[in-house]
Amino acid sequence: MCGIIGYIGSRPATPVLIGGLKRLEYRGYDSAGIALAERTGLSTFRSVGKVSRLVDKLKAELSEKRHEEATTGIAHTRWATHGAPTEANAHPHFDKSRKICIVHNGIIENYRSIRERLQAKGHKFDSDTDTEALSRLIGESYNGDIRKAVIQALRQVEGAYGIAVLCADEPNKMIVARMGSPLVVGMGDDECLVASDAAALVAHTQRVIYLDDGDVAVITPHSVDIRNLDDEPIERNVAELGLDVSAVEKGGYEHYMLKEIFEQPESVRNALRGRIDLAEGNAVLAGLSASPAELAEIGRIILVGCGTSLHAGMVGEFAFEDVAGISTEVQQAAEFRYRNPIVDRHDMVIAISQSGETADTLAAIRKAKEKGTKVFGLVNVVGSAIARETGRGVFIHAGPEISVASTKAFTGQVSVLLLMALKLGRGRRLSQEHGMELAAEINRLPELIEFVLKQNDAIAKVAERMSKSEHAFFLGRGPMHPVALEGALKLKEISYVHAEGYHAAEMKHGPIALLTPGTPVIVLANHSPVLEKVWGNAEECKARGARIIAVVTEGHAHTDLTDDTIILPKCSPLVATIPAAVALQLLSYHVARLRGCSIDQPRNLAKSVTVE
Description:
Blueprint: E1 3-8, H1 13-24, E2 31-38, E3 41-48, H2 51-61, H3 64-69, E4 72-78, E5 93-94, E6 100-108, H4 111-120, H5 130-141, H6 146-154, E7 159-167, E8 174-179, E9 184-187, E10 192-195, E11 207-210, E12 216-219, E13 224-227, E14 239-240, H7 256-262, H8 264-272, E15 276-277, E16 282-283, H9 292-296, E17 300-305, H10 307-324, E18 327-332, H11 333-338, E19 347-353, H12 359-370, E20 374-379, H13 385-390, E21 393-395, H14 408-426, H15 432-443, H16 445-453, H17 456-466, E22 471-476, H18 480-495, E23 498-503, E24 520-525, H19 531-542, E25 547-553, E26 564-568, H20 573-594
Parallel strand pairs: 17-18, 17-19, 19-20, 20-21, 22-23, 22-24, 24-25, 25-26
Antiparallel strand pairs: 1-4, 1-10, 2-3, 2-4, 5-6, 6-7, 7-8, 8-12, 9-10, 9-11, 11-14, 12-13, 15-16
Helix pairs in contact: 4-5, 5-6, 8-14, 8-16, 10-14, 10-18, 14-15, 14-20, 16-20, 17-20, 18-20
């Protein structure tokens, strides 16, 4: 959600910090700020809106000499949780003495009681944020050692945080700490950086340390000293980032979202590489780290996730039941953590998250582990909290996803879920012959996606004819139902069109009352056992004046019923979910483009939701 970047070294800090903030813009934010350690103390600059407004403010207020001299600083992009998006609420925030300042991601749940306690001591708060309560609490604890002050303060807080702290009296160090909100430390030559997302570090270093919950690190240009909340030394491994700068740039595309849609043949190819045994009709998934006997005894699968990852899990539900014959259910991660779920050692919980840092999904993992069940992760980000806490699972290898609206993560997640279903199925009821057929189809996914991408111009013309509509419906049956939900989510996320996804049979049970002449109804009518049922549902909408946009399998168009048609390649219903999702991504993208929307950074949204 919010973004953090910090720098300590020998170079001017401002360009590094601003460059990092621009790399973090995709996460979604409403204000930005920066703090610099100068000879005269700590200086802060804050603004509402885009990073460009902060840059303008720095140019107006920061002289060239001060710009060159400041070699330590922290910066932040804020997504409002406590208090409106105002300059007073923007980070960084000071303590009472104005010698300590912090930037903070997450939520301090007991900030009100801390605030009231400090107000009774004479503190007058400058903002409505929970962060200022923490900054002042650190100041109250300070007695000449900023590390000890931070630890003492953090022992008193409840909630999630990723923080970076500067102290004017100790200008040659930076303190960072993590609890439920990601932080990664980058180590360069005579300099260190910290960020909430590795994308902000890729231009400076490939050597990183991923902090764990409870870590407090003292960072200097030459060292990283990590402690726990008992102030005991902790060892963390240095990892290779494995990212290239080009991976987080637009590469000539108008928007990151369009780039990422067109990257999907390659991202899915990466997700599948080395994982398909065509001769045996099986999947090779070493990351599951489970013996054949363990896999054979799985009695139920529970898929947990949020948003797009939840929809991917819903496709997975069909795959696990149809292919592997295992009873499967999908639960919203936030619901799972609070409902006292009934799980045991025969169950398999799969946590799905693009970032690997989703707060509710992390909490669901911990709840499942408490109950003694097997937990696996399905994430994109190596080194993420979910990957570390599960210890086993499968990476989707989609590469950085910068646009807030997820595209290649969804297709990567569904691709891997199909592989997992194939592997479990071959260990149970799926014959080698049928396994080989499914394996061959999954292996063709990159070219199936390319089939859809070649229709980009045609889909853009369909978008022209629906771009003025303020409402839309997406209908699907079977595994296409979650694709309909995902298509509706994409359209409303980036174009602000009110869109709803429904099981096609549900339309007549209430939502059809909302249809007015010309309302777009996008019908997922791929070749399947229930195709005629889907066409019947489309007829009901057409009879009430709806504009029918059909997504159909090649050779199965229904021209007397449809107003527009998007063609899918021939493939089985489960595999067709992926090219169908790509078609709806393109449709949503072009509607948003024609409506002049901020596609990569939609209003009110954040890329990674690290708070409840």
